[in-house]
Amino acid sequence: MKFFIADAFTDQLFGGNPAGVVLIPEGEDFLPEETMRKTAAELRYSETAFIRTLSENRFHLRYFTPAAEVDLCGHATIASFCVLQREGLIESGKPCTAHTLAGDLEIQLSPDSVLMDMGEAKTFGLIDQPDKLKELYGVMGLAAEVPSAGGQALYPERVSTGLTDIMLAVKDEETLAAIRPDFAALSALSEAYGVTGVHAFTAPDPSGKVHCRNFAPLYDIDEEAATGTSNGALTYYLYQKGLLRPGAENLFIQGEAMDRPSKILSRLTEETGGLRIQVGGSAVILAKGSINL
């Protein structure tokens, strides 16, 4: 079967976040779970997506890290639909549906980018007790200093738009660059909080740009260069704080500390019956070939 390596959330090779993509031959079912996990471990990327065609423009995606299956992966979804488009399996301008463990997501395609719906935005509470703050910031190698923006304190919060992360505000880019997590302690803390990891960020600058870093050692990912689901969650967090305008296009810069700069776009729309959060970007294919499974 065919496999691809694609750099997502970038328009240049060796930027963004690389993902593996495996196309299941038409009419065949997914491979055994352990085989897919071992394949992800062999490819050595943070996530590998396995894609099975359900019908025209409808696809079932499953995502594996080297350690386990996860419900959703934003950058692997962007990579997957760029691959499907480049392989001529879908057409630009036609909406597609991605069936995932996080729900059915609508995908919008243009010739140069992919925009995907996030799952329902949910919050699981602030982390605001002094001892918990000291523990969390300490694990990240920082002093327990909660920054402010828009006249309010930006306390850490567990937020999900498909996967749950701790949104962790830091006061500036210098502090962001200084993060040095204790990865073993962060894995244990992530497990205790029931989260994938920690998404650290600066408040939006005057142009609306946000700089961020993502850490998920519980899933064998010390740091990721671009995370769609985490920035979808961050979009909701900033909206709750009044730091993001509905309908605006938001830009998140990630991966700078890894020398893999990424650009992740998001948009939050207020609609009848709830909120719609979309995350997207472009991708480039580095390699393709056959994998003997």
Descriptive account of the structure:
The chain is an alpha+beta fold. The protein has 6 helices and 20 strands. The chain has 2 domains: 124 residues, Diaminopimelate Epimerase, Chain A, domain 1 (Roll); 159 residues, Roll (Diaminopimelate Epimerase, Chain A, domain 1). It is 22% helix and 40% strand. A hairpin with a 2-residue loop joins strand 18 and strand 19. The model has no long low-confidence stretch (mean pLDDT 93).
In total, how many beta strands? 20
For the largest beta-sheet, the strand count, sense and barrel status come to: 18 strands, mixed
Rg (CA only)? 18 Å
Fraction of residues in helices? Answer: 10-25%
CATH class membership of the largest domain: Alpha Beta
Helix-strand string:
EEHEEEHEEEEHEEEEHHEEEHEEEE
End-to-end distance: 7 Å
The pLDDT mean sits at 93
| Contiguous runs where pLDDT drops below 50 for at least 5 residues | none
Tally of alpha and pi helices: 6
What number of domains?
2
CATH architecture tag of the largest domain: Roll
- Provide the β-strand percentage band: 35-45%
- Structure classification: alpha+beta
Going by CATH, the homologous superfamily of the largest domain would be Diaminopimelate Epimerase, Chain A, domain 1
Identify the overall geometry: globular
Fold-level CATH name of the largest domain: Diaminopimelate Epimerase, Chain A, domain 1
